[in-house]
Amino acid sequence: MNHLALSMLFRDTGKFFGIIMGVMLASMVITQQGSIFVGIMARTTSAITDMGWHDIWVMDPKVSFIDDTKPLQATALSRVRGVEGVAFAAPLYKGILRARLDNGEFQNCVVMGLDDATLAGGPPEMIEGRLEDLRRADGVIVDQVGASTRLARRPATPGGRPVPLKVGDTMELNDKRGVVVGISRNTRPFQSQPIIYTTYGRATQFAPKERKQLTFIIVKANPGVSIDDLCRRIGTETGLAAYTQDQFRWKTIMHYIRNTGIPINFGIAVGLGLLIGTIITGFMFYSFTVDNLRYFGTLKAMGSSDGVLLRMILLQALTVGVIGFGLGTGAAAWFGNSMRGTPLAFFMTWQLLFVAGSATVIICILAAMLSMRKVMVLEPAIVFKG
Three-state DSSP class for 141? Predict the structure, then answer.
């Protein structure tokens, strides 16, 4: 009976491909839009994930996400270092400063000031130069994307391509001189601003003078110390907020989910894809079942039970579901791979594939249920009419 069900399905080529296209459309839209959404959310935490060596972020209790900087007093660093279980604590400056380009225009940049002694919190990967070169006079490290796009120099000839910054070039940050000593590879940030690394002392010189300039404190725990317990201990003894890497990452993501229209926009796109895919699949599958009623009636007349016929319909629905899901996710993966190297955020996870697969199963079940009623009320005598 399974072979007969599949033969019926594959024989009607037009409707078979129509059903496949409906399932494929739904799975492709869900996977593609979901991957873009996940990619955008991942970029909101790029500054956190790029600094993966330490255990804890310490900050002002009112900070709600990574870019919501509320500077601390300089004495906070000593208080954190005095907490039992802290192996290492380093200051971190994070702020937005203006870089002056050679054509006179200005570009806002994310400036990261690293601990002068240890350079803790540096870029994840160096393409040119070394992290230690930041100790040179006026040294800065620029991320590769920023160096080749927004901070690039004017073309040598009219209509030519911009010239990327390279090691040895100079730049102005808030009217102060900086010398490029390295190029780093970073995760693209959410706001697509260039990322510049320098020492903490130099970053506070670049930045406008304020009473408080310590943005974050990054902490490494002693071996064997519970990270969660140390976070609570830091909070109790210093009055500051302390989060693990994952906690701070999810705090940032949830801020964007709650306070921006990004989830709603992508949710509407995914919902429309699911609705359209369900309508197309349901209509085509129902039409396919109606066209084959005489075969189901013949099987009923030969003694086949409703259960057998329903299993045949489910097999047909699941078959087109598997094929459509594979084609849809494959098309979404191809799209994401073809957009590598572009500003588009695209990050496909196994959880997203699971969601898309579950949605495909729901579409197939709904399409099958629409056809099942027609088969269950079918009278075998229909075979002998006409």
Answer: strand
Which residues make Cβ contacts (< 8 Å) with residue 69, sequence separation at least 6? 63, 94, 95, 215, 216
- The residue ranking higher by pLDDT, 59 or 53, is 59
Contact indicator for 31, 352 with CB cutoff of 8 Å: yes
Q: Average the pLDDT over 121-132 and give the result.
A: 91
The mean pLDDT value of the chain amounts to: 86
Strands (E), the chain: 56-59, 86-100, 106-114, 125-128, 139-143, 170-173, 176-185, 195-199, 216-221, 241-244
3-class state of residue 184 by DSSP = strand
Categorize the per-residue pLDDT at 57 as very low, low, confident or very high, splitting at 50, 70 and 90. very high
Instruction: Please report the DSSP string for 273-333 in residue order.
Output: HHHHHHHHHHHHHHHHHHHTHHHHHHHHHTT--HHHHHHHHHHHHHHHHHHHHHHHHHHHH
Query: If you average pLDDT over residues 129-140, what whole number do you get?
Result: 92
> How is residue 125 annotated by DSSP?
E
- In terms of Cβ atoms closer than 10 Å to its own Cβ (0-12, 13-18, 19+), residue 386 is exposed
Query: 65 is written with which tokens?
Result: 């996400």
Query: E strands along 80-138, which residues?
Result: 86-100, 106-114, 125-128
Task: State the Cα–Cα distance between residues 266 and 111, nearest whole angstrom.
Answer: 31
Six-digit token pair at 186? 């970073």
In the chain, % of residues over pLDDT 90:
40
CB 255 within 8 A of CB 40: no
